[in-house]
Amino acid sequence: MALRNSLIRALAAISIIYSFSTPVLAEGEKQQVLEPGLDGTLNHIKYEAASTPPSEATISRAIERDYYKQKYMNTITDEGVDSLDQSSKRYWLLWCMYGFERHGIRYQNEIKKWAVRYAGISEKHRKIVKSSSDYEKIYDTVHDLWGINGQIAKDVVTHALAYYSIPRDELDRFILVQEYNENWDNQERVNEAIQHVVRDWATEGQHERATAMKTLTDMLTTHFPSRSVSQPARVLVPGAGLGRLAHEIAELGGFSVTANEWSAYMRLAYRYVTSLRKKESETNHPFLDWWSYQPSRTEMTRPVLFPDSVVPSSGPQEVVMVEGDWTVEFANDTAVYDAVVTFFFMDTATNMLDYMDTLSRVLKPGGMWINLGPLLYHDAAVEFSLEDWMDVAEKGYGFEFVDVPEEWGPLTLKSKKARNRDIGYMYHKESLRRNIYNAQLFAAVKKETDLDE
């Protein structure tokens, strides 16, 4: 914590010094590209003071953003494809870029395989198909549309290379080495990230976001009625994925929001989507990869426009995204946040108690923890029932559970203040299949305990 604060103070000092030598731009104003004069300097340029100087909240957000970016950049400074190993963060960042770079061609190759399988059916059956539908055209159609999807994935890579200051030739060499050694990329993870673009940043995902996210933002609004831009409530959203919930909270005003995500696949997609400055400027065809449960070929090939909302790149409503494992990245933060919102996240832990340690430490005494999600464990060391989990949170970590909106649903357990509702997760609303969880909503206030000492 002390190290983090000292670095933030140093960055603040640097920003003050920088402000004396650099023209100050009003919030929302774009910096022009300035050409040097004949003497090679910019002395011929006359600057006018911005009509609206940046607010303290804007400066604070910028300092925190720059601090966390530099902190992450310091962990990926190792270069040289041949010397990288799988313990290197730079290796895994390049690995994820590798997957996005090859996204289009991988699926186009799969389409060719599917077409070969179809060609293997009998001539009789092919005649039946030809005489009754134009099904055979789907292979060429989908092949071409995957070219569009592949370009979006390449755009993710292009943005990432610039953001992380990684040379293109380094990535190209990395890919060549991996493919030479037959280390094939993980398209399942790439596709998952792209599907989250639909869930978080397209109107097609609104049916999932509407109820769940609004319930969470309403609870925060109710709990912090006196917040303001000058005195914001600090909120942490770990496991933020592509970040829509964090941005929805920030848009309420009076909240200083920090998001966190471990998966580099998610972070690469998030950085790209939130860099877009025009609403619904990009097109993807997200329903091509799975031909099961499709009501029609028209629906399967339908384009989706994104983003449905453009987020501020600066100002009090800017969200700071922290990259990495939250149990590590926030290890030195004690009593920093007024609220932590865990949304479809806590059950991703290998050890739930590690998450509880971090949660309890980063929250201020009296801080609010709001949780919404299922209990879907993934080879976890500890797999609590809901009752066990809430007992541990209450008796082991000093959380006091409070009432949550009755409208969410009935109490799951008569003795506990958790309510449940069936909500969808990552499904296409026109699909013939639904992915539904009985999601648990609860909230708790952190009390002072021996664990705080």
CATH superfamily of the largest domain: Vaccinia Virus protein VP39
CATH domain topology of the largest domain: Rossmann fold
Helix content: 40-55%
Low-pLDDT residue intervals, each spanning 5 or more residues: 10-50
Outline: globular
Class by alpha and beta content: alpha/beta
Mean model confidence by pLDDT:
88
Domain module tally: 2
The CATH architecture of the largest domain is 3-Layer(aba) Sandwich
| Element-by-element helix/strand order | HHHHHHHHHEHEHEHEEHEHEHEEE
User: Which CATH class of the largest domain is shown?
Assistant: Alpha Beta
Distance between the termini: 15 Å
How many extended strands? 10
> C-alpha Rg, in Å?
25 Å
Largest sheet: 8 strands, mixed
Number of helices: 15
Strand content: 5-15%
Signal peptide: 1-26
Pfam family, one: CARME
Keywords: Signal
GO molecular function: S-adenosylmethionine-dependent methyltransferase activity
